[in-house]
Amino acid sequence: MQQTIATPYQMGQILAAGRRRASLTQTEAAARLGVSQSRISTLEADSGALTLSQLLTLLGAYGLQLQVQDRGSSVAAPTASALEW
To answer: What is the model's pTM?
Structure first.
């Protein structure tokens, strides 16, 4: 699955879909992550409340990863020079 995300709502939808693709209920996902089921529900409904750490943990638990690329770019693998500051 590859998705472009422009809003927190879209991120919540991706998280919910990723959880379902991983065959996890909200309760099962919460148990894996050490949070309450209501927290999973809240993060799926309002992912604007996510920290980066929480986002990466959720993505990892669902078998997803975060990639960042330039807009309009179709190249997924960054070059070494693209990572320099």
So the answer is: 0.76
